[in-house]
């Protein structure tokens, strides 16, 4: 269990634990969920635990890298600034012969997203940030839950559905992920 989920919130703080711990906890949560979903679809998934260097997720089918993902689990007040956008583009652009995806949680600037798409990077918007229950409850007490959901099995199913919807739209109703890249 992470520090974030064991921490008893301070009444006036912006986060349920120190900011760095919170950001690490929340960032790893969505990456971990995506790893599980992609493994259930039959892929080998490598996660980069160094959140600042390289893409977050490498997806392999039959020993071949087929997808790389950059993932942000941000709340609705977060903004995609130019430096972060350029890092996302640079990380994904290192991988020539695979599909590049930027998966983000809440709405971001159309201008910033357009600059990412111009580089051949696909976009997937979940529509909500996921949190563990203690963190969600902290924000709930402050009435700051817009665009946030507690991580549950039904939320995992919703995320899986978004991934499959993307794959279906992008790759014409794929029935088995192994046929995606043959």
Describe this entry's structure for a reader.
The protein is α/β, with parallel strands linked by helices. The protein has a single domain (16-169), classed as 3-Layer(aba) Sandwich (Trna Endonuclease, Chain: A, domain 1), CATH 3.40.1350.10. It has 6 helices and 7 strands, in the order H-H-E-E-E-H-E-H-E-E-H-E-H. It has helices at 3-6, 19-40, 82-93, 110-117, 133-141, 153-171, and strands at residues 44-47, 57-61, 64-72, 99-104, 122-125, 129-131, 148-150. The strands form 2 sheets. A 5-stranded mixed β-sheet has the order 1-2-3-4-5, with helices on both faces. Strands 6-7 form a two-stranded parallel ribbon. Strand 6, helix 5 and strand 7 form a beta-alpha-beta unit. Helix 3 (82-93) packs parallel to helix 4 (110-117). The longest helix is centred in the first third of the chain and has 22 residues, at 19-40. The chain is globular, with a radius of gyration of 17 Å. The chain starts with a helix and ends in an 11-residue tail after the last helix.
Report the CATH topology name.
Trna Endonuclease, Chain: A, domain 1
Shape: globular
Helix proportion range:
40-55%
Biggest sheet, spatial arrangement of strands: 1-2-3-4-5
Number of domains: 1
The H-and-E topology, N to C, reads as HHEEEHEHEEHEH
Structural class of the secondary structure composition?
A: alpha/beta
Mean pLDDT, nearest integer? 87
- Which stretches are low in confidence, meaning pLDDT under 50 for 5 or more residues running? 1-9
Number of helices: 6
Task: Say how many strands there are.
Answer: 7
What integer value in Å does the Rg equal? 17 Å
Main β sheet profile: 5 strands, mixed
Q: Beta-strand level of the residues, as a percent range?
A: 15-25%
CATH architecture call: 3-Layer(aba) Sandwich
């Amino acid at each position: 269990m992470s520090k974030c989920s064991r921490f008893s919130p301070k009444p006036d703080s912006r986060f349920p634990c120190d900011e760095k711990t919170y950001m690490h906890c929340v960032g790893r949560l969505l990456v971990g969920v995506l790893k599980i979903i992609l493994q259930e679809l039959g892929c080998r998934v490598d996660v980069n635990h160094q959140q600042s260097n390289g893409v977050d997720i490498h997806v392999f089918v039959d020993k071949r890298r087929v997808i790389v993902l950059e993932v942000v689990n941000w709340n609705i007040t977060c903004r995609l600034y130019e430096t972060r956008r350029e890092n996302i583009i640079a990380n994904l652009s290192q991988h020539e012969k695979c599909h590049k995806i930027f998966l983000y949680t809440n709405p971001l600037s159309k201008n910033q997203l357009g600059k990412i798409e111009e580089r051949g990077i696909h976009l997937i918007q979940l529509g909500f940030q996921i949190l563990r229950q203690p963190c969600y409850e902290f924000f709930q007490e402050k009435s700051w839950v817009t665009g946030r959901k507690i991580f549950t099995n039904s939320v995992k199913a919703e995320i899986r559905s978004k991934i499959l919807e993307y794959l279906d739209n992008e790759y014409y109703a794929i029935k088995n992920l192994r046929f995606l890249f043959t």
